Amino acid sequence: MAHEIAHAVAKHGSERMSQGLVQQLGGQALGLLFQPTPPLPSK
User: Fold this and answer.
1) CA 40 to chain centre
2) b or e along 6-15 (b: 16 or more beta carbons within 10 Å of the residue's beta carbon)?
3) What pTM does this model have?
4) Measured distance CA(28)–CA(39) in Å, rounded
C-alpha cells in the first residue's frame, strides 16, 4: 500500500513541475513579445 502511495505522490509532484515549466516558458515568451523595442537609428 505504501508503495502505491509513493507512486501517486511522485506522479503528482512531476505533474506540478510540468505545469510550472509550462507557465515559466509561457511567461518568458510573453515577455519577449511585449518587451519595448529600441528605436531605429535615424539616417
Assistant:
1) 32
2) eeeeeeeeee
3) 0.50
4) 22
Q: What is the pLDDT of residue 25?
A: 92
Question: The cell 515549466 sits on which residue?
Answer: 21
The residue among 26, 20, 22 whose CA lies nearest residue 12 is 20
Percent of the chain that is helix, strand, coil (3-state, to 5): 75, 0, 25
Question: Which single residue is written with the C-alpha cell 505522490?
Answer: 9
1-43 pLDDT per residue, tens = 888 888 887 777 777 778 888 899 999 999 888 888 777 787 7
